[in-house]
Specification:
The complex is a heterodimer of chains A (524) and B (503).
Chain A (H helix, E strand, L loop, with lengths): L1 H25 L5 H25 L9 E9 L4 E7 L3 H19 L9 H20 L3 H10 L1 H11 L4 E3 L6 E3 H30 L10 H6 L6 H18 L8 H8 L2 H26 L1 H27 L4 H21 L3 H32 L4 H4 L2 H4 L1 H14 L7 H13 L7 H29 L18 H19 L2 H19 L2
Helix pairs in contact in A: 1-2, 1-4, 2-3, 2-4, 3-4, 3-11, 3-14, 3-20, 4-5, 4-6, 5-7, 6-7, 7-9, 7-10, 9-11, 10-11, 10-13, 11-12, 11-13, 11-14, 12-13, 12-19, 13-14, 13-18, 13-19, 14-17, 14-18, 14-20, 14-21, 17-19, 18-19
Chain B lengths: L4 H22 L5 H22 L13 E3 L4 E3 L1 H27 L5 H17 L5 H19 L6 H32 L4 H11 L3 H17 L8 H8 L2 H26 L4 H24 L4 H21 L8 H36 L10 H4 L1 H15 L6 H14 L3 H30 L8 H5 L5 H19 L2 H10 L1 H4 L2
Antiparallel strand pairs in B: 1-2
Helix pairs in contact in B: 1-2, 1-4, 2-3, 2-4, 3-4, 3-10, 3-13, 3-19, 3-20, 4-5, 4-10, 5-6, 5-10, 6-8, 6-9, 7-10, 8-10, 8-11, 9-10, 9-12, 10-12, 10-13, 11-12, 11-17, 12-13, 12-16, 12-17, 13-15, 13-16, 13-19, 13-20, 15-17, 16-17
Classes of the chains: A mainly alpha (524), B mainly alpha (503).
């Protein structure tokens, strides 16, 4: 398997879905079954390859870039096709391919209106290329391209298959369909952030050395991090952080998220929550901190404070929701707050917390969005006040919802626990260069946040699952979980329990890489 | 005089084609034969360009380096070769777009192709002009025929308005340009660009020269429709037949930029601080004004008119960023390279956008954005192309436009000055704002339901004229290939950037 290690394997994982999209395009429109089979086939092979990647990966050297390659791409501006995997990106790649397979399985029998499985499967596959590409790119320009490619499929998913409820746009006051508003808002917010991110990348390039020795290579730039100091570093960090913060999203750049999540079709919300939000946090760990470590320390208190505000704000926002899907969307803001708090501590424990938190949020919130989608498909409403008694009407679905809510609130033994716990632990002992008092305060507020998180999730459970069903549901045909849902959800349930019981599935890959990163960035 | 016929062969072939097209029109054959002759002639003119470009590796070709004629006023260097190639390819695509359009309506055909090719001949000459006389003649040859072509839909008031407005503004801008040139001539006593640069270097700047430079640059600002000298653009674009609009927005605009590049970098290279400051302002206003006004447009061609004003602003950014910079050849070359790259990519994606619009409005008989609604449902192919070209114009990877924006940012930030950085930030904000209207077109085509105005006949009629299919294919291939493998463009634009290093 020499070719696999030398970069071809990774490139195959990145571009095979794109080939799959073209293959789906070639299938005649009427043959929906074949389109689904082709899409699933390509997604499965890609997932299989990422498993091969995970098996072949040398965990003893997870801090090293593996399976990497670098080819000349755009010589004129010094950008190369540089890709590779280390312990930090490996879990994210497997998560992306895994969730994509489940998304296609789930879609098998659940086509949102106006159907068109052909285009929908193509978009999912293009999205996969963008997601995996972002996680393997080690060149800033290449990273930018993949980071942007991700926008397009999601824009179409929300815009075409999204929620058709009419809403009044804030400020402008025009009434329009939810999907139209959410799709353009999602696009413009992210584009705004990434435009400044690109300026930051270019600025780094020009400061990276004398003419002829400049580079966009992330690893090389991290090695030259001494060159970036003073107000230059301050502004570049701000530009990059703006791009990443919108994507995460960090409070107060989060306002696109509840709209996009609520408007998106089920599979769109799942992919958005499970993978797309991670692009931002991943970029902080991969780009901002190794390349601008000193400036990261200067910004850390601000990031920590915003993260904790996000946690508390999201909790209260959740308590104010009546729409189940919107509640789950806001809970994402809170969970990503814990991830960012972990990153803000600038410690190895904090980074480990962030990555395991990202993976856990991916599987847990992914599952919750699946359930929310299936429930609104059956009840034709997402209003929690009308959903009461779900446990009696659909026992299995109720049970899985219960489990995912427990995992989401951080019950020990389930996946969500580790991210929250380790992130608070890290805030107790932040990087020596940071203000201990401040971070311990943040820890206390964050801990209160975990209580509030438990509060709103239990409240949701109570409203949706418990109680007696309304009489109006008596005549409605409500079937419990069907086989496609089962096939999509059971793997998620298993991974939630597996990561909860044995977190080394994730940290085993990340730990050495994270320790090395902290050592290189902050010394000692 | 000893002429280098090999170097002049593209112009000679093109001039021959112009005459041949008129002769064909007289023959008792179908009218579209004029177009066929025009297309073949344009394609034939590309051949000597290739042999000139690869002269070193060809046995029969006598390698003489830069081919300079008429005492240095007419030069065939790598810059000229690349830009001539661009003009000829643009002409080919526009010809392909025109055939179906003219066949479909009641138009004079032979004269149309004659005028179009005459204008292209002007653009090709423009790329080689290195003095003000030949440049002015070339510029007038580019614009003269387009005045007539803009009014080609004779029965339509808007088309008449388009032509008249364009004519008046064109004449005024020519007068402004000539005024500036005459002042420059008066101060320096020279007409050749190289001599002007040398004279300015010796004599230094003077108030009169400053006025001359400003007026010359402003003359070109009209030609490239930079704000605030843009007001003819939307009306003319909307009123003119769409293939003509495509030619105005790409061919004629690129010709203006070629003139601006050679004049700014070669003739006025030593007074860079002056024109860079002026162009900084033009760039910032063009981007901002073009974008903001484009958002409110309901007609797609008119919107593309404002879009082309904004895109022109982006092309000017590398020039403007040179204000208050130490003139290292490296920085100058980067800026030159960025503008040429932008022009090449812009040509591919903008022609593609116009070709798609021609195909669509052929079918739905409307140019309103709201009438595009539901296109994705009954014509996914055209709607897909529309999305690709508009995302490219908006600068979203992986389609070509992103790379044009990237090199533009690259040169602005690489200039290392605060002014350059400020312009980059203005450009970045504008790049985001632009999505608001490019996205509106995509939204209409893909997200909205089919309106009642679209009949079943329109839905099922999937015929697109074969030449137009070819034009769509060419521009599509270019837009995708340039976006995924940008080195295809950079090899061209690096080749062309030789001109800036001659300073």
């Amino acid at each position: 398997m020499g070719w696999f290690e030398s970069g071809w394997g990774l490139s195959l994982i990145v571009f095979l879905p794109l080939v799959g999209a073209v293959a789906v395009l070639a299938v005649p429109k009427a043959r929906e079954e074949l389109q689904k089979v082709v899409a699933l086939g390509f997604a499965l092979v890609t997932f299989g390859l990422s498993i091969v990647l995970a098996i072949q990966f040398d965990y003893g050297a997870s801090e090293k870039i593996q399976f990497g390659t670098s080819r000349e791409w755009i010589a004129a501006i010094g950008s190369n096709y540089t890709v590779g995997v280390d312990g930090i990106s490996l879990p994210m790649i497997v998560l992306s391919t895994f969730i994509t397979v489940l998304a296609i399985v789930y879609s098998w029998d659940h086509w949102p209106e106006p159907r068109n499985p052909k285009m929908f499967s193509m978009l999912i596959l293009v999205l996969l290329t963008g997601m995996v590409g972002t996680f393997v790119a080690l060149d800033l320009i290449l990273f930018f391209v993949f980071f942007e490619i991700v926008l397009l499929p999601m824009y179409f998913m929300i815009g075409i298959w999204g929620d058709r409820t009419e809403v009044r746009i804030p400020v402008i006051g025009k009434v329009t369909e939810m999907r139209l508003y959410a799709s353009i808002k999602f696009f413009l917010f992210t584009l705004f952030g990434s435009a400044f991110m690109l300026l930051g990348f270019i600025a780094l390039y020009f400061r990276s050395g004398p003419a002829g020795d400049r580079t966009f290579d992330m690893i090389e730039l991290a090695a030259r991090s001494d060159l970036f100091t003073g107000s230059f570093a301050f502004w570049v960090f701000a530009a990059l952080a703006l791009g990443f913060a919108v994507k995460v999203p960090i409070f107060p750049f989060h306002t696109w998220l509840p709209d996009a999540h609520t408007a998106a079709p089920t599979v769109g919300s799942v992919l958005l929550a499970a993978v797309l939000l991670k692009l931002g946090t991943y970029a902080f760990i991969r780009i901002s901190i190794p390349i601008l470590p000193q400036e990261a320390l200067n910004w850390a208190p601000a990031i920590g404070i915003l993260a904790v505000i996000g946690i508390i704000y999201a909790s209260f926002a959740c308590l104010a929701q009546t729409d189940m899907k919107r509640l789950i969307a806001f809970s994402s803001v809170g969970h990503m707050g814990f991830v960012m708090l972990g990153i803000a501590t600038m410690t190895d424990i904090g980074f480990n917390a962030a990555i395991i938190g990202m993976v856990a949020h991916g599987v847990i919130t992914g599952l919750m969005f699946f359930i929310a989608g299936s429930m609104s498909h059956r009840y034709h409403t997402r209003e929690m006040s009308r959903l009461g008694g779900n446990q009696k009407l659909m026992p299995i679905m109720g049970a899985i919802l219960g489990l995912s809510a427990m995992a989401s609130l951080g019950l020990p033994g389930l996946a969500g626990f580790w991210g929250e716990f380790m992130s608070l632990l890290a805030a107790f002992n932040p990087n020596p260069a940071l203000n201990v008092g401040l971070f311990r305060t943040l820890m206390v507020i964050g801990a209160i946040g975990t209580v509030l998180t438990a509060g709103y999730l239990l409240w949701m459970m109570q409203k949706v699952n418990f109680g007696e069903p309304r009489e109006s549901w008596d005549d409605v045909d409500l079937h419990d979980v069907d086989k496609w849902e089962m096939m999509a959800w059971v793997p998620l349930v298993i991974s939630i329990i597996a990561i909860g019981v044995y977190p080394r599935i994730v940290t085993g890959a990340t730990n050495d890489a994270v320790v090395e990163l902290i050592k290189n960035a902050f010394g000692g | 005089m000893n002429l280098d016929y090999h170097a002049l062969l593209p112009e000679i072939i093109l001039a021959g084609t112009v005459i041949l097209v008129l002769v064909t029109d007289l023959l008792p054959v179908k009218k579209y034969w004029s177009a066929v002759v025009g297309i073949l002639g344009t394609a034939a003119a590309l051949v000597p360009l290739l042999t000139l470009s690869f002269c070193d590796s060809l046995e029969f070709c006598e390698s003489t380096g830069v081919r300079s004629m008429f005492s240095g006023t007419y030069v065939v260097d790598s810059f000229a070769l690349v830009l001539k190639g661009l003009f000829l390819v643009v002409a080919l695509v526009v010809l392909l777009m025109s055939v179906g359009y003219l066949e479909g309506g009641r138009f004079w055909q032979g004269e149309y192709y004659f005028l179009l090719l005459a204008s292209v001949l002007g653009a090709v000459v423009m790329a080689s002009s290195r003095d003000f006389i030949s440049m002015f003649v070339a510029l007038e040859l580019v614009t003269g025929p387009t005045f007539l072509m803009a009014g080609w839909r004779k029965g339509d008031d808007r088309s008449n308005e388009a032509a008249l407005k364009y004519f008046i503004i064109g004449v005024i801008s020519a007068a402004i340009l000539l005024f500036g040139v005459s002042l420059v001539y008066g101060v320096t006593g020279q007409l050749r660009f190289a001599d002007i640069a040398a004279a300015i270097a010796v004599r230094g700047e003077s108030p009169l020269l400053t006025i001359g430079v400003i007026f010359t640059i402003l003359g070109f600002a009209f030609k490239v429709s930079a704000a605030p000298f843009h007001f003819w653009t939307p009306d003319t674009y909307e009123g003119a037949p769409t293939p003509v609009t495509a030619y105005l927005a790409v061919g004629s605009k690129a010709a203006g930029f070629v003139g601006l590049l050679t004049v700014a970098y070669v003739a006025f290279g030593t007074t860079r601080g002056l024109w860079a400051a002026l162009i900084w302002i033009l760039a910032a206003t063009s981007m901002t004004l073009g974008n903001v006004v484009a958002i409110k447009q309901t007609n797609i061609v008119r919107m593309l008119g404002y879009s082309s004003i904004a895109q022109g602003g982006f092309m000017l950014v590398p020039f403007g960023a040179l204000v208050a910079v130490d003139a290292t050849p490296d920085v100058l070359e980067k800026a030159f390279f960025a503008t040429v790259t932008y022009i090449v990519i812009y040509a591919a994606m903008n022609l593609g956008a116009f070709a798609t619009i021609i195909a669509i409005s052929n079918r739905i008989k409307s140019g309103e954005i709201k009438d595009l609604a539901g296109l994705g449902l009954y014509a996914p192919g055209l709607a897909g192309l529309l999305a690709i070209f508009f995302f490219s114009l908006a600068g979203i990877p992986p389609v070509a436009g992103w790379f044009a924006k990237l090199v533009m940012f690259n040169s602005a930030i690489g200039s290392g000055s605060g002014w350059g950085l400020a312009l980059a930030v203005i450009a970045a904000v504008n790049a985001v704002v632009a999505f608001a209207y490019y996205g509106k077109v995509v939204k209409s085509a893909w997200f909205d339901a089919v309106p009642d105005t679209v009949s079943d006949a329109m839905k099922s009629d999937s015929k697109v004229a074969p030449p137009l299919v070819l034009a769509l294919g060419l521009t599509f291939a270019g837009t995708i290939a340039f976006g995924v493998f940008p080195s295809l463009v950079t090899s061209l634009s690096e080749f062309a950037s030789s001109l800036s290093s001659g300073l």
